[in-house]
Design goal:
mainly alpha; Arc Repressor Mutant, subunit A; 2 domains; two-stranded antiparallel ribbon; about 70% helix
Length: about 190
C-alpha cells in the first residue's frame, strides 16, 4: 500500500467509535470504553481514535456531574466545509510563497533535496486543487467558484516544471519526479 492510500483500519475504528456513540448516547466514558475494548480495539487505540475524532471536531465532550459523555457534533457538514476552506486557502497561499522562492533556492540544493522538494510541491499543489474542487462541488456543483485558484495552481505546477527543466540535474530529477507522480495520478483500471 502506498503512503497516499487511506489507512482503512483508521476509518474502520473511527466508524466503530462513532456508531457506538450514536447508538449509545447515554454511555459515559468508562461504559463506552467497556463496550468497545477489547472486542474491537485496544484501550490505547480507542483513546487515539477518540482523540482524533475530538481533534477533527467530529465529536465533542459533554460533562454531566463527574461523567464525560461523547456527542456527535451538530452541523458537522457545515463546520467541515469551513475547515476545508480555511485549510485549503492557508495551504494555497503558503505554497505560492514557497514557489516564489523556488527559482533562487532550488539550484543550491543537492539532487535528493531537489527531488524531495519538487515532489512535495507537486503533491501539495494537487491536493490543494482537490480541496478547491471539493469546495466547488459542495457549494455549487454547476459552477466553478474557485476558477482563479484552479488557474493559479495550474500556473504554479507549470512553474515547478519550468524550474526543473532549467536545472543542471534535470536528466536525473525529471524521471524521478514523473515516477513519483505516477503513484498519485489516476491509473488505467485495465492495466495490471
Amino acid at each position: 500500500m502506498s503512503h497516499h492510500e487511506p489507512n482503512l483500519e483508521i476509518y474502520e475504528r473511527e466508524r466503530i467509535v462513532l456508531e457506538s456513540i450514536k447508538n449509545n448516547h447515554d454511555l459515559h466514558h468508562n461504559a463506552l470504553l467497556k463496550l468497545i475494548v477489547p472486542e474491537f480495539m485496544a484501550k490505547t487505540t480507542f483513546e487515539k481514535t477518540r482523540n482524533s475524532l475530538l481533534e477533527k471536531e467530529i465529536i465533542f465532550v459533554e460533562t454531566k456531574a463527574n461523567m464525560k459523555l461523547y456527542r456527535l457534533t451538530k452541523n458537522y457538514e457545515q463546520k467541515s466545509q469551513q475547515h476545508i476552506e480555511r485549510n485549503t486557502n492557508i495551504f494555497f497561499h503558503d505554497l505560492k510563497s514557497q514557489i516564489k522562492r523556488l527559482e533562487t533556492d532550488y539550484p543550491h540544493k543537492d539532487v535528493d533535496e531537489k527531488i524531495t522538494t519538487a515532489n512535495y510541491l507537486l503533491r501539495n499543489l494537487l491536493q490543494t486543487d482537490n480541496g478547491f474542487t471539493v469546495l466547488d462541488s459542495s457549494k455549487n456543483p454547476n459552477k466553478t467558484l474557485y476558477r482563479d485558484e484552479h488557474l493559479t495552481i495550474q500556473q504554479l505546477i507549470h512553474q515547478v516544471f519550468e524550474t526543473i527543466r532549467h536545472d543542471k540535474d534535470f536528466e536525473i530529477i525529471f524521471p524521478s519526479i514523473l515516477s513519483y507522480l505516477g503513484l498519485i495520478m489516476p491509473k488505467n483500471s485495465l492495466e495490471k
